Known about the structure:
Chain A is of the alpha/beta class. Chain A has helices at residues 30-46, 55-59, 63-72, 97-106, 122-136, 160-171, 196-204, 220-229, 243-246, 248-261, 278-287, 292-298, 304-319, 323-332; strands spanning 2-3, 9-10, 13-17, 78-81, 111-113, 140-144, 176-180, 209-212, 233-236, 267-268. Chain A has a single domain, classed as Alpha-Beta Barrel (TIM Barrel). Chain B has two domains: 4-126, GMP Synthetase, Chain A, domain 3; 128-239, no CATH class.
Amino acid sequence: MYRTAKGEEIFVIDGHTHFWDGSPANQKNIHGKQFIDCFYAYHSNLSPPSEKWEKEKFEKYDAKTMFDDLFVTGYDDMAILQPTYLTDFYKNGFNTTERNSAMKKSHPDRFILNGAFDPRDGTRGLEDLHALSEKHKLKGVKLYTAEWRGDSKGYKLTDKASYQYLEAAQKLGIKNIHVHKGPTIIPLNRDAFDVADIDDVATSFQDLNFIVEHCGLPRLDDFCWIATQETNVYAGLAVALPFIHSRPGYFAHVISELLFWVGPDKILYGSDYGIWTPKWLIDKFMAFEIPADVTKETGSVLSMEAKTKILGLNAARIYGIDVEAQKKKIRAGGGYAHLPEAVHAPR
Amino acid sequence: MKSSDERRERPRGRSSDDKRAQIWACLQDVMDPELDESVTELNFVTKAAVDSRDHVHIEFRLPTYWCAANFSFLMADDMRRAVSALDWVKGVSVVLGEHMYADKINAGLAQGRSFQETFGAEADGSLDDLRQTFLVKAFQRRQVALLSHLAALGKSPAQIVSWTLTELGSLPLDDAGEKLIQRYLERRSVVGPASGDGPAFVDANGARLTAEGLAGYVSSLRRVGINAEFNGALCRGLLAARFDLDTPFVPKSKMMPASSGT
């Protein structure tokens, strides 16, 4: 919960968090080491120096650290746990639904547990998706299209098998499809980050929401174009948001373009925890204004109303969260007891 | 960025220094196709040395282990070609360090194979389409930067769209403006014939821009430039976080032995 100077309470849903184990003990091979090293480079490069973690903590943090960083030190009210399996790189997987479900079980009012599927898993995978959905009452899944699986180095949403899985998701009431694009999609002579397949499935599955993580980066330009045409395509802010500290000028341009093309109702805040932590991200975001020269170019303004939508209301809408009821539940459980009376006015 | 090793090397006379300077000048013209920035300015190149037989040895590394294989190959191939164009060069080796496809790419480069030959079944054709896509993006990014500059100087849309390429080239501008024009002209032929009496400003299909449509056109292209600049900033930051000047170059994909778990 973030409180403004005027006493407004801003309900925050963190659209993208992980509870991973990237430690050397869990690494299966060089790729596992390089994967967590790459995350750590994102973390070290874009975090303010005071927020930088030691490598060992970054590789594997415990449940209490995560809870405190999100909900006690940080302003998150709720957080979506997004799995990333990577079972070819990590012995027990990197961040599975199973591992995340322990967090959800300990703090049911705080977390939204998302599942995952991989269209290359065939009929067996469809059965697993049914079971996973039944067990956890899933409302969303995270797809990592660049995941390696045996000889395969990734898949596209337009693959025939992907369609079967999306149809199954629709039937199971899994409405929110978070898509993370990564490199190495075969064939290698094409653009590994191409987002055109999102355009295709968004048209074919009008009842599903497609939340494109990292707002399509490194194809922000193509993504913006698609998102203007598809009413069910959303932008996840993870990776773009931390630039607010190191490169506020770039962030101003990116958020302006997103507001212009995608609009304030379809942008979702996400910390990408543990790559970054909510406290500093939200302090900076609440204090941020788009500079006049950029506004002059784009006409985009990051109003308080837009901030409120991005930080929580948009996610609440697509995940069916009743914000007032949820606040009551969290308050009744003592979840706001730590909040000082003082406001979190932008500094 | 030259490696610390190389900087410690003793100079071997003017001729050797000249040759090295020529190599770096060639490499400076090789672009990361996605970022449209020079591979030397991005600090990708860690070494460019000449041996006594006039063979050139280039080493480079990228911001992540996962950088797209196709662009990695393209940059290596472009570096090889650029340096081979120097008449005294007898041979060129280009080696990529610490990348998921380093072993494959390095073997392909060493044997002078094409991208398609190197990747076989993992690719289903050449890189020409991909290269063209990003050349068009580079054209658009350079064009929007120049158009914004001209608008800021008070040039009207009607004036801007009326110019021929020759007229654009002879505008009296300051150094920054000259540079923008030069960069734009380097990519102008990507989208169509670029003779002197042809229109200076055309769209990606080669059609002349119109005065009425100019503002809308510029705002729709803005996102191409912002995307490239954002990616450039991200890549520089990731490279700096991954390697500093003292990090030894490892010409392989593997830095630790695979455990029994694989």
